[in-house]
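User: Hi! I'm working on a homework problem where we have to compare a predicted structure to a textbook description. Could you give me the structure for the chain below?
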Amino acid sequence: MTIRSRTTAILAGLSLALTPLLAPLLSGPAILMNQAAAEPAQTARVLRIGAIPDQKPEKLNRLYPLVASELSRQLGVTVKYVPVVDYTAAVSAFRTGDLDLVWFGGLTGVQARLQKPGSRVLAQRDIDVAFHSIFIANTGSGIQPFSQQKGLAQLKGKRFTFGSESSTSGRLMPQYFLSQAGVKLTDFAGGAPGFSGSHDATIALVQSGTYDAGVVNEQVWRTSLHDGKVKRAKVVAIWKSPGYQDYHWIAQGDLDQRFGKGFTLKLQQAILSWRPSDPQQKQILGLFGAQQFTAAEAAAYVKIEQVGRQIGKIR
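Assistant: Happy to help. Predicted C-alpha cells:
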C-alpha cells in the first residue's frame, strides 16, 4: 500500500469515527431553527380572553375561567383568561394584540375598535340591547326618587360619584343624561364628581355615606339587591335612565389566519349557543345576568361613539 493510500484510509476511518460525535453539533442549528419555528405556532393556538374589570375581582375570577373552559371545550383550542387592572388596560391590551377576545362596555368597545381596525363585534347579552343606568342615593342625603329626567337637578351641590372614568353605564351615558337635565360636572360638591372605579365600589361608597349619590349599571344593582349586599335602609334607587346599547364581545380581526378558516364564525356561534339548559353555560349566563347572547354589530354603537366624542372620551 502506498503512503497516499494509507493516508486516505486513515482519514476515512477518522471520518467514520467522528461522524456520530459531530452530528449533534452539525444538526444543532437546524434543530433550534425547527423549535423556533414551532413555538410561534403553539403560541398562536392559545386564545387569550379578557374583560373590563367592572366588578370585584372575586366575581371576575369566578366568571371568566368558566368562559375560558367552555370556549375551549366547544372550539378545541386552549383558551386562557388574562385579567387586566382597569378599563384602559383592557383597551391597550386589545390594541397591542395581547388579548384576542374581550368583553367590553359600549365606550371601551368603540375605543378598542377605533384603535384596532378590522376587529369584529361578535355578540352582546339580551339585556344589552336596551341597557339602563340606575342613579342611587344615600337615604340620609335628602335626595328623593323621581320619574322625570329633570329631577337630576336635585344632584346639584351634592357629593356625587361615577364608576370608572371609561364606564358606559357608570359614567358616559349618565353624564350625557345629566347634561340634558342641565347638570354640569362642576355643579357637584367640590366642583367635580368622584370616580369609584367600579359599580360595586360606587354602591359601597354611597351606602356608607362617603357620597350622597352615584350611578351604577342596572344589572349590578339588581344583582346586589338580590344577593342582599344593598342595605335598603341606607341606599335607594332614585332614577332609571332610558335604554342604550352597552356591553359586547369584540374579537381580533386576524383569528381566521391564526386559528384556521371560519374560526371567528365558530367562536361567535359558540357564544350564541349558550343556554340555561346546560349546567356550565347556565352558571356563565347567571354570572353575566343574562338568559342568552345575541349577535351584535358595530353599527349599534354609533350613539355611544357620538356621546364619547361629545364628552372628550373619544378623539
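For your comparison, note the following. The first helix runs from residue 3 to 44. Confidence is low (pLDDT under 50) at residues 2-43. Good luck with the assignment!
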